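If your schedule permits, I should be very grateful for your opinion on a structural question. I have a record of one protein: its chain in single-letter code and its fold written as discrete structure tokens. Kindly check, if you would, that the fold set down in the tokens agrees with what the sequence suggests. I remain grateful for any guidance, and I place the record below:

***
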Amino acid sequence: MEARSVEEIPTGHGWQYEPKWDGFRCIAFRDCEEIYLQSKAGQPLGRYFPDIVAALARLPEQQFVLDGELVVPVSGSLSFDELQLRLHPAASRVQKLAKAHPATYIVFDLLGESVRVYLQRPLRERRGFLETFARSNLRSAKYLRLSPATTDPRTATEWFKKVGGDLDGILAKRLDAPYASGERTAMVKVKQIRTADCVVGGFRYARGSRLIGSLLLGLYRDDGLLHHVGFTSAFKASERRELTKKFEALKKPPGFTGSAPGGPSRWSTDRTGEWEPVDSRVVVEVAYDHFTGGRFRHGTKFLRWRLDIDPRQCTMDQVECREGKSLALLQR
């Protein structure tokens, strides 16, 4: 089930609100001894999360289908970096990571149990079934938690204030709606959109082209070095030729004096790992929804050129967020 983006938390009768956790969406299937974890894109995840597979295997219920989010808590907050490290081809490496930092599966929907299928049941009923399931199965379970839910918009607003650390936003779901797989008709998401002034430290050419595909963004840390934090690429085709001329004229190493882009972009397999450094004199203002682990979690939206900003003013304190503190919301 997908969510449609909206700007404000909806109010009125018939909504259920939930935190939107910063992790990997995952459907968990169990049929007796067989357990299968599936990503949002339909890919198998079980080999990367053996700790969760083992935790599900220990539950009393032998047959179920759960919808939830895979996260990795580290020192009281969620680490998206540790989560991504799990996607490693070597099973021995995955086992080592799982032992060092076990994952948690945060459950927010029950799609089936035993021989019963709940997809066509309204969310109001599914949540009731889920809470009953949680009381019987999750109270003492390791690495498995029930995500909170409320029908009170004031509580949802309080959760929304925590967005930016462990929380990626707020979800609002229609209580009378069935589980609409692949559709965006019964669930919306609200994110906090922020802005930041960033230095352009380099660029990448678009795949198969000599025109700019994305600008690479940097921020200064307390160490005085310019660190790579993300990219922006939402430029019109008509603008890319002029952008290419502008930044090719500014080519100059090192571009980033701190952490630099290394290898292919984590945000898109279509981008080449090669990048061109430029003189760090251009400042852009971008909009973003989430900054964690020292970078923008998603691509940013270009807003404007900032000719009035000195690059040295583009510091990391613009994007500092409340790390952790939201895990206390989780229930057994």
